[in-house]
Amino acid sequence: MRTIRTSVITENIKDMCIEANHFLSEDMKERLVRAADNETSPLGKKILCQLKENLQIAGEDMIPICQDTGMAVVFMEIGQDVHLEGDFLEDAVNEGVRRGYTEGYLRKSVVKDPLLRENTKDNTPAVIYTEIVPGDKITITVAPKGFGSENMSRIFMLKPADGIEGVKEAVVSAVRDAGPNACPPMVVGVGIGGTFEKCALMAKRALTRPVDSPSSIPYVRELEKELLEMINKTGIGPAGLGGDSTAFAVNIETYPTHIAGLPVAVNICCHVNRHIIRVI
Amino acid sequence: MDKYIGVPICEEDIKQLRAGDYVYLTGTVYTARDAAHKRMYETAVKGGELPLDLSGQVIYYMGPSPAREGRPIGSAGPTTAGRMDKYTPFFLKMGLKGMIGKGKRSDKVKKAIAEYGAVYFAAVGGAGALLSRSVKSSRVIAYDDLGTEAIRELRIEKFPVVVVVDSQGNDLYER
Ligand code: SF4
Fold first, then answer.
1. What is the fold of A2-20+65-145?
2. Exposed end of chain B (fewer CB within 10 Å): N or C?
3. B66 in contact with A at a CB cutoff of 8 Å?
4. CATH of the domain at B11
5. Are B123 and B131 in contact (CB under 8 A)?
6. What is the pLDDT along chain B (175 residues), one digit of tens a residue?
7. Among residues B65, B40, B66, which one has the least CA distance to residue B53?
8. How far apart are alpha carbons A206 and B50 in whole angstroms?
């Protein structure tokens, strides 16, 4: 058994919120550079170059990549041999978010009630998912999620007879509807299978996978590739103003499902696909 | 071809802008997003006075991140315009001439843009750090309690945008 103070979690989450909003992962940067090099639309190329410059300014001047610094989504894989000491875990996470968003000059974008809509002024609460795993470590993923793209995400309860063609149609139609609203080039997270909520969660999780790490399941890998090609043929392009670079990647996660169902969730993320992983 | 125009925007400038034009804006714009739109709309329909005279003005759909010391503003890119569609025809009727945001507008809004001779620009979404460099000053003029959603007066210099819906109702996204 290993004891971890919850204050360590708070401290890490604070730093991760700030870091995620100023720096993108290497795989995301690499895709952006490649897209800027290969884009054939002159306006599209100009926009991709601006996005590259934007990233550079964000890191150098410590100004968030995007003003929508998101709602903080936090995944924690907690080893079953870990003993937590200190505050209640959820409070520790929210304290980290509070400090990160306050001390890091990040925007407070969370309202306390979906209909009464009063801003909580510290970006809490986070959306928190915990999972118990083997071992004595905690893996934390912080993924601040912007809502321009979140709002364009969709869930489809397909019929088994719709099959793989139905899945392709669902994903491409979600991307088409999202268009310029989702700040393309996008990253498309897809969940297939499970139940209604399981498949939505898989789609979100898929966004935290690097964009250069295809699925380990051969047919899923093929599907990811084919969907990416289909999406980049839509012509939506950077900022939705036309071009070849509509998405950087399609990441798919799957799970067993019921004999009567084929749930498909499409969680769309913009080019500011933020996620930081730390193991403590 | 790149164009340079001043804001607030005059009728001649609006008339010559076409969907697809790349434009640099210099002058004064006002920020307002969801909550400020709702409040202005509810005030106006009740016959109340708005915190600013909209006629001839340009609204930037934007809620910035907080400014660090010594800087005019934090990250300052556009938010999705479509969420304001419900209120837009009303404000266009009141004299609003331009909007800066990102994403699609409804048919009703596009019709109103053509009817009242206005223009909808898109700024690049997710380029808030870069765009902040074109913002020279920022001052909250109303609805301070709304935090990032307060109405701000921004002085902008060569702020880069693309015309998406022009005064004839052409929509760049539909091409
Ligand atoms: S969708 Fe992404 S890039 Fe666009 S405004 Fe929201 S967070 Fe920023």
1. Dihydrodipicolinate Reductase; domain 2 (3.30.360)
2. N
3. yes
4. 3.20.130.10
5. yes
6. 799 999 999 999 999 999 999 999 999 999 999 999 999 999 999 999 999 999 999 999 999 999 999 999 999 999 999 999 999 999 999 999 999 999 999 999 999 999 999 999 999 999 999 999 999 999 999 999 999 999 999 999 999 999 999 999 999 999 7
7. B40
8. 45
CA A15 to chain CA mean position, Å:
18
A173 touches chain B (CB under 8 A): no
Report how far residue A114's alpha carbon sits from residue A218's, in angstroms, rounded to the nearest whole number: 41
Say which amino acid occupies B173: Y
0.90 exceeded by the pTM?
A: yes
Which of B18, B38, B80, B121 is the mutation pick for testing A, counting most A CBs within 10 A?
B80
Report the nearest-CA residue for atom 7 of ligand 1. Answer: A146
- Which residue in the set B35, B82, B128 is minimally distant from A64, CB to CB? B128
* pLDDT digits 0-9 by tens, A63-90: 999 999 999 999 999 999 999 999 999 9
B66/A54 Cβ within 8 A: no
Parent domain of B35: 2-174
Give nearest CA residue, ligand 1 atom 8. Answer: B126
The ipTM (two decimal places) reads 0.95
Dump pLDDT digits (tens) for A7-19: 999 999 999 999 9
The partner residues of A277 in beta bridges, in order of sequence, read A141
